[in-house]
Amino acid sequence: MKKVLKDKLNILIIFISIFLILLCFNRSLWGDEAWTAIIMKYDFKEMIREIGQDVHPPLYFVLLKLIVTLFGQHIEIMKIMSVIPTIILMAIGKKYIKHIFKSDFIAGVFICLVGLMPSCMHMSVELRMYSWSILFVTWSAFLGCEIYLHGQRKDKLLFTLSGILAAYTHNFNIISEIFVYMILFIALLVKDKKYIKDILIISLITILGYLPWLFISFKQVMNVNNDFWLWSVNFTDIAQMLIYPFNSLCHNEIPNLFVLIFIGLPLLMTSLLFIVVLKTTINNHFKNQKANFVLLCYIPMYGLMMFGVVYGLLIRPIFVARYLHSTIGIFFLGLAVGISLIKKNSLKNVAIIILICNMIYGCFFNIQREYFNGTEDTLAFFEKAKKEYSTRTIVTDIFLLSTTVMPYYETQYTTYSNTVYSLEQSNQPIFYIADQKNDQSFLENMNAKKLYSGNIDNEYFFDIYLINNVEFSQKTIE
């Protein structure tokens, strides 16, 4: 233990890990997280069938199911399950960076970026698969570097394994891995044509490894092409993708000017860094290996972004900013290496200060999101109101509240009904949860009594009404 604590990078990893774990002790969930928690209540066979009908591969859910089976269905435990891959990523990042670049500075910057940047911090405690995605895809990139430098069989096997694991974690990870594979294969062929055999073997094993889920994945893609909640690709969508690595806002929230400064400065800095490194690389006729590496690290994230936008314009919008998460570990690795190339200490310090400010902003917003988001107050209100008004019946016009969030908190309901409860049995007092963005005037004719204004997870903002003995029809809330 003393030996571990002598290494400052180990202390940094431990500190960040403790901070992330402390963000997990709350009951706040948004719609997709609630759906994840709900299907953990299913038996294994039913869970796999439900996943197959959704849009994601099964690996994360299988791992989470094992944890739930061992430790019980506690939100805190399930959230900590998402911290684990971030801790692993910081640890292997330190190992590979010190081996490849021989630099504690690059390793330290990388550890801070994947642990404390707003998007990474948020996804590290979200009850979803994104922290596992960034682990597997970034691991592939590290192994690709090892293969290029040393060509050991162990690294080739692990590279293939990481690619398969990534593909089984999120469908868009397949595109991320295609960029990683493509960069490695081109680099190997430029280095020596003898690597073509390794390229073919790695490609074949990867395809065979994913084959069991390939047809289900294809069916999922066809289903979302026919029916998905996105309807267009617009400037706001693209802007959210561009700021994603530095952003910590809720999913559809637009940043105000103050927040935009904290997000915009690191985006501007990374853009300028890319231009400077590109110029340096061209001037050196692509002989500066570190500069070449930085440029390559930009490709997976922006390549995936371009794929998502073009696919949305030509076929059907199915891509949102958070799907970039698998690639930002590679992007941050390139950023860490790029900062190390800055020769003027004053400019290097400015870059680091900009990133630290972004991390502080991320810490503030993520602490607020997890612990000061209105969820506990809203749940406490419901517990009190259900006793006071002798009803547990809830109806809402907010889709994800009705299909996942309230069904999780109110365990007598089931997921994916159009409303939280059957409106045909509405001849009793009910709580009506009305979206604050929607017209609520129709409630005036129903003797609705407004009881509470609240929100869950800083994502769903609503007013809660009590309605006594009013007959609804399904059409009423549609």
TrEMBL record:
Transmembrane region(s): 12-30, 66-93, 105-124, 130-149, 170-189, 195-216, 228-246, 258-281, 293-314, 320-342, 349-367
Keywords attached to this entry: Membrane, Transmembrane, Transmembrane helix
Protein name: Glycosyltransferase RgtA/B/C/D-like domain-containing protein
Organism expressing this protein natively: Faecalibacillus faecis
Lineage of the species this protein comes from: Bacteria, Bacillati, Bacillota, Erysipelotrichia, Erysipelotrichales
